[in-house]
């Protein structure tokens, strides 16, 4: 009996090792730009339900950090770009940030923090150099403060860069080099990363390669092979993800830092807001990526497993759409924590859905739509422009989930506005042109959402109630 159970235990633990090994390098980015965030403890439970063991945050929001405490999930904590100036200007600001946002959680039963991400894509071309001078000194101050706080090199400071920090004129990885305008600060950062044995974090987006150039061969954005691979010395590239990754390896090599480890800080595919952003292409991208990660065969220049953080966890309706409307649709889960398409994190290609976030509460089943008798085109256009200036309309348009006529668009925008304002009846007026209905106006792929109760609002209500109760008690006790 004893022998049998030992054998069973061995087999089970072996299976466990084999099963978990695939997902070893896999993490997810958890952004916080949603107007109605879910309760972070429900989100953490979902991460555990799905076997996700690593997350990357963009800040250190206390409720999120609290929810992650004791979860065993490894966490990258972020410092937003707008804090870089202050942290770079005085060491004491870095000390304060570390004390408040790292030391507080760095204990047994606290948060298992792996890295501090200093800034987010600070050298992005479209930032026009705004964070050019502050990134390195901020990184230096944070690493020093971490060391002084006694994290014993366990927690390392890194900088997540966009892949636009390097380029290759011909598209061949071997011609890769860091962008000239950022090179001298980049060299300082590389030196610091190396002396700390910290990895280089890079965000790689085949979707953007496709979206930004009409000449980009579509199949090169995915992992199913191509009739026109890129040949480079003795290597053949069949997808832009590998080519981009190896362009970084070459860029590092040319400045003497080829031994830095590379982590993919973000990789993903959006599902709406662009003609190439939909669930079918997103599934195709993730199927290919996850299968590739499971095989652990890396890229032509780095034949080993890759550490990747998917982007992102949920849709975020308050993200800036300056780069494009797709920005609000990167979630592998929707705004309400439901999976959008089948996804097998083990890379075995099983056609199953991720487990959804539990405990999400929806508002009443009602929608705001346009009164059917409004037909004047110029009035409709005015209403559409107004509503869309106040709410999220990024799903509207040709080739997107909501390809509607003008009246349909106005209804969509009215509903989006109404839901975003927590179904307040006054926000479905529109000078008498709006009306509340109980009939779901959703059509085909175009879903008219029902908003969820946001964790924050519920907390505020409870807080307000307890203050009120406190006041009542005070009045009565006097
Ligand atoms: C700690 O992080 C939070 C959330 O990102 C931020 O609001 C706060 O200002 C940070 N603390 C310091 C001292 O900068
Ligand atoms: C960068 O410069 C462009 C062109 O001058 C401008 O449109 C944009 O707003 C600038 N962005 C930032 C973040 O300063
Ligand atoms: C539509 O509305 C505009 C603005 O109120 C008005 O000037 C125009 O005459 C209307 N058109 C029709 C066909 O009623």
Automatic annotation (TrEMBL):
One of its GO terms (biological process) is carbohydrate metabolic process. It comes from the Eukaryota. Its EC number is 3.2.1.39. Residues 366-448 form the X8 domain. Residues 1-25 form the signal peptide. Keywords: Disulfide bond, Glycosidase, Hydrolase, Signal. It holds the Pfam family X8. The keyword Transmembrane does not apply. It catalyses: Hydrolysis of (1->3)-beta-D-glucosidic linkages in (1->3)-beta-D-glucans. SUPFAM superfamilies: (Trans)glycosidases. One of its GO terms (molecular function) is glucan endo-1,3-beta-D-glucosidase activity. Belongs to the glycosyl hydrolase 17 family. PANTHER family: GLUCAN ENDO-1,3-BETA-GLUCOSIDASE BG1-RELATED-RELATED. This is glucan endo-1,3-beta-D-glucosidase. The lineage of its organism: Eukaryota, Viridiplantae, Streptophyta, Embryophyta, Tracheophyta.
């Amino acid at each position: 009996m004893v022998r049998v159970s030992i054998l069973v235990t061995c087999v089970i633990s072996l299976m466990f090792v084999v099963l978990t090994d695939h997902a070893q390098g896999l993490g997810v980015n958890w952004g916080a730009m949603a107007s109605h965030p879910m309760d972070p403890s429900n989100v953490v439970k979902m991460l555990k339900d799905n076997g996700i063991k690593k997350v990357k945050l963009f800040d250190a929001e206390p409720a999120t950090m609290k929810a992650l405490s004791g979860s065993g999930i490894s966490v990258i904590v972020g410092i937003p770009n707008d804090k870089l100036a202050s942290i770079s200007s005085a060491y004491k600001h870095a000390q304060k940030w570390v004390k408040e946002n790292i030391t507080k959680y760095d204990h047994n039963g606290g948060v298992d923090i792996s890295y501090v991400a200093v800034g987010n894509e600070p050298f992005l071309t479209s930032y026009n150099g705004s964070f050019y001078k502050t990134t390195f000194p901020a990184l230096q101050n944070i690493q020093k403060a971490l060391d002084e706080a006694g994290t014993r090199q366990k927690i390392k400071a890194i900088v997540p860069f966009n892949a636009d920090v390097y380029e290759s004129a011909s598209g061949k990885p071997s011609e890769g080099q860091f962008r000239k305008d950022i090179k001298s600060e980049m060299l300082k950062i590389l030196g610091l990363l190396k002396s700390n044995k910290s990895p280089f974090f890079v965000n790689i987006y085949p979707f953007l390669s496709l979206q930004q150039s009409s000449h980009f061969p579509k199949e090169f954005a995915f992992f199913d092979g191509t009739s026109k691979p890129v040949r480079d010395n003795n290597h053949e590239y069949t997808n832009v993800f590998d080519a981009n990754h190896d362009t970084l390896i070459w860029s590092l090599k040319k400045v003497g830092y080829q031994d830095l480890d590379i982590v993919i800080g973000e990789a993903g595919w959006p599902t709406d807001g662009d003609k190439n952003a939909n669930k079918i292409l997103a599934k195709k991208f993730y199927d290919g990526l996850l299968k590739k990660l499971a095989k652990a065969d890396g890229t032509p220049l780095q034949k080993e497993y890759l550490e990747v953080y998917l982007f992102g966890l949920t849709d975020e309706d308050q993200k800036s759409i300056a780069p494009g409307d797709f920005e609000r649709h990167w979630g592998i889960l929707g705004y309400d924590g439901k999976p959008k398409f089948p996804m097998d994190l083990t890379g075995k290609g099983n056609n199953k859905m991720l487990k959804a976030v539990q405990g999400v509460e929806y508002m009443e089943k009602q929608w705001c739509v346009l009164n059917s008798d409004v037909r004047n085109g110029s009035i409709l256009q005015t209403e559409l422009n107004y509503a869309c200036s106040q709410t999220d309309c990024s799903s509207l348009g040709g080739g997107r989930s909501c390809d509607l006529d003008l009246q349909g668009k106005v209804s969509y925008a009215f509903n989006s506005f109404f839901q975003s304002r927590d179904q307040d009846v006054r926000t479905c007026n529109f000078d008498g042109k709006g009306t509340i209905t109980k009939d779901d106006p959703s059509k085909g792929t175009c879903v008219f959402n029902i908003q969820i109760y946001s964790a924050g609002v519920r907390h505020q209500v409870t807080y307000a109630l307890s203050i009120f109760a406190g006041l009542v008690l005070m009045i009565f006790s006097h």
